[in-house]
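Practice problem: predict the structure.
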Amino acid sequence: MLSTFEIICTGRVQGVGFRPFVNKLALSMGLSGTVSNNENGVIILITGDKKKIHEFYTELIKNPPPVAKIKNHTLQQAEPQLFDGFTIIPSATKKKLNLALTPDFGICPECLDEINDHKNRRIEYPFITCVNCGPRWAVTNTFPFERAHTTVSNFDMCHACKTEYSDPSNRRFHSQTNSCSQCGIELSLEDNKGNKILVEKKNIFRKISGLIKQGKILAVKNTGGFLLCCDATNKEVIIRLRQLKRRPKKPFAILYPSIELLHKELQISKVQEESLQSVERPIVIVSSKGYKGELALEEVAPGLHQMGVMLPYSGLLHLLGKEMNSPLVATSGNIHGSPVISTMETARELISGVADYFLHHNLEISNPQDDSVIKFSFKNHQKIIFRRARGFAPNYLNFEKKYQLKTMALGAHLKSTIAFVPNDYLYLSQYLGNLDHYEVYRRFIETVGVFRRIFKEDPDQLLCDKHPSYLSTQFGTELSEKLRVPKFEIQHHKAHFASVLAEYDLMLTEDDILGVIWDGTGYGDDGHIWGGEFFSYTYGEMNRLHHFQYFNWLAGDKMSKEPRLSLFSLNEDRKADFLRTKFPGQELKIYEKLKQSNTLKTSSVGRLFDAVASLLDLCDINTYEGEGAILLENVIDGYQLENLKSYFNSVRGHTIPTQEIWNGIYMDYCNGEDRKVIISNFLFTLAELIIKVADFNQIKKIACSGGVFQNTTLVDMLIDLLPVDMELYLNRDLSPNDENIAFGQLFYHVHKTDQ
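Answer:
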């Protein structure tokens, strides 16, 4: 006797080849029915032998398509229906969206084989995709994920593509981004004066490669936005790119054409290789020690023993890398600090003075994204996300909604992101940037608009940072008045702490958890600048237990950009020779007067890192965010815990003696101690301090967040020192920096009982 069942799958199940997979599986098992997308996910009606249907259901849930992630699934018996075979039917959306959005996926092995196969009709087609790979969020206008809801809809499929699309046995069956060189996206080349460069399709990458090898800078429109590319072995062109992009020292990302060449030139670990080849295809920061190639290392990553590398994640980048057969600088297509550019008009306006040539294409990008960046700690291989964007955004799938209000969190000011819960899912935007820059602020406002438009929902409440000068906070005030909804302000470091708790589903825990939140700056509840905080958390109640001893916050935001000011603030030796060198002319007298009249204080551990970096002559003025701290870690080439000492004795109250730690560092400096030793001892002091504070408070669970915990040596030391009876929680799916603030604001607000 035949039975009919309804199966509903939710999660990341659209734009991932789920319906073609279901179709093929059902036909192979002799079952009939239909499958379609709807506003909640995928709905399957299936008729056949009951035992066979249960086997089908089990196989579907256990072994879904490669890039699918099923969150929830149900199987219910339905009214008997007869079907003529098994078919994919058009999506029906009568309600508002309630499903996971689909991120971009790196090019899959099958498409790579085809793009290199002279017998395949997609040989060297730059925009090759299938159900398992290609742009998704970048080209999305709305959902469900159907071709008509993307910018690919501007291209009508040719007969051959339509045949593939309609063939259940084909890998491109119902592939919404399907196209080829006959009907698809086209490239064009022009110089920075707007003059078209005439070149045959088949020769365009040879032409581009030739230009790059001649020392030219190319602005390449990829699937997520423009990249500025040049020869990574050419010192002169890299120096020129730095000058034109106004990026004097921040390291550039390097695109390797293949994992094979990367292995020849660099030593990478198994976890680094797996990450580089994952569907997300992030930039991975690796050690450059022992490098065997011809890269202009000092120009690529000035003063560093590490660099960010990535592999081609699109057909276009693969073809460019294949033709070059050598590493390329591939950095965001923008002026330093601005968001990645995605339109030719904006590119001509903003970077025609940087790029010599533009490689353009006619696919519109709806949601521009930077490349994601990841680093693994050297010793314990702890993954730390530095930037969460392409490949990860705009979802956070490990989320169980426990409240009804539609909530939007507007995050912080630096490393801006937006979080929105309009339904049963949490959507976390790609990294947007520093809101001080007008273009970033405009992209921030546009992203709020994209979320409201896609879900056809306005928030019932808005969350933002307590800092009154943050543009995200000011925008939140304006939007709350416009929408007539309440706005709530969440303290910066409490949001950081909540981000870790939420990642590990600890918001409802009854166990005491120690929150160690260290960063550069955040507006504190007492009006001072926090950044060296210890909190306790138990079942919704968060309290400040300890903090680093306050020291002077000088010259406003200038202090975060000039490590020498942190050195000046902490230094007690007014006759130190380095002061006259670092503060020439009248500067020393000006800052002395400022210090005497100053009332704003800080507990920032980030500024303590800056002070050490300046003391050791590594960095007096940052040319990019966190430069001093990065250069500090860069000096260390390994450590032996048993040989290290602490500059801190014991926890004696609510205040951690910043000056005591600083005086120990300064004494070693004056005694001529090697700076590698000083830095190692400094990081050891911080790691051991965390354990001591946990012991003092008799807390066995420790959660750490904030930009300081991007220091992988500190993280390794903390893991090494952790007693067996303690548990450590670090941000794993989110960055520890301010990108996690919007996420933390959501969870803190929902679960707080302490305010």
